[in-house]
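User: Earlier you gave me the apo prediction for this protein. Now I'd like the version with glutamine bound, so I can compare the two side by side. Same sequence as before, with the ligand SMILES added.
Assistant: Got it. Here's the input I'm using:
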Amino acid sequence: MKQSRPRLTSLSGRSPAILVLEDGTCFEGLSAGAPGSTVGEVVFNTSMSGYQEIATDPSYRGQLITYTMPHIGNYGVNALDNESVGTQAAGIIVRSLSRRASNQRSEQGFEDWLVERGVVGICEVDTRELTRRLRQGGVGLAAIVHDATAQDSAAALELIAAHPGYGSVDYVSEVATTRALRVSAEDAWQSPLKLTPADAAEQEHSDGPHVVVMDFGVKFSILRHLLARGMRVTLMPRDADRAAVEAQRPDGVLWSNGPGDPDKMEPFIAGVRELSERYPTMGICLGHQLLAKAFGGETFKLGFGHRGPNQPVQNQRDKSVAMTSQNHGYAVRRESFPEELEITHVNINDDTISGFSHRHLPVHAVQYHPEAGPGPNDATSFFDDFARELAGRHASGT
Ligand SMILES: NC(=O)CC[C@H](N)C(=O)O
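And here is the structure of the complex with glutamine:
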């Protein structure tokens, strides 16, 4: 392996650790986070900040996140920035991991938090070289093993061999709700989000439009954006049928983001179609992919995906460009794009489909993340449009 600087063998108590790719390529580094070993699909994210939001984004379930920003952890973590209850990344890979957190919002150091949550990591890795490889060869499985050097690569390769393959795992079942949950609007931006069983007594009596979020691993920022626009929000499990959704008397339905290969979600596609013919509908990321499939489209795996806060997307109607936050490894195939849908947004980097609307139904979907979390707020108008659509329907009682 090419070394860009002399290998460190210890750094304040860290032990040697390795990251091994499927093809046997070994990156040597030092242990970080919780001790042990881990395996997952190795991907990279180009954000300069937002490491906590990324590690808690359910769409990263089963993945080892390479942070391309060379210095990670310096502003600590805090409870408000979690994008879900758990920590979802299967592991983290960084160049320099800060042990000191310096920020007025910090409640805990990033590494202590990783240890507490059992997330295995590796630091002092040549993340630039790793990212170049992933860009050239595509993403794949990899394993991190602590207390190991390149001579121990076989142990890592065994972990990889025992993995069923990223696309074969139903990661959504590990992160999404299995029961209806009400989302409390109280202090949504000031305190950690509160989710309570929807059968419990109503906690609030807001009279805003009601959105049912079909949960495949939704990010809290999405829920906050809905609440901030005066909407009432209920999470429903992915297998909730039409009757269960209708019983909630929603004004609209949102299909959430989520981890894994959208092809694994085939059993739920008929339900996506049925509900989107009935309610104003919005889809984000995995939700975008599910909606495209529901109308006859297909998805495919990108070489190395789009993960970062600086993905330029062009609106096909007014030609404006927004910088968007993205985190996806699959996309909708152009050749399969259904006639009844219209492409509304395109990723300028590689011309992939970034958004569409139905030609006749109020169905809109984006492959990017208008909620950012982390990332720029260029695209939040997507929520404004949805709120307007639902407010009209709510007022008219249709
Ligand atoms: N953020 C997401 O919803 C990701 C969708 C899907 N799992 C993908 O990787 O493409």
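For your comparison, keep in mind: The two ends are 63 Å apart (CA to CA).
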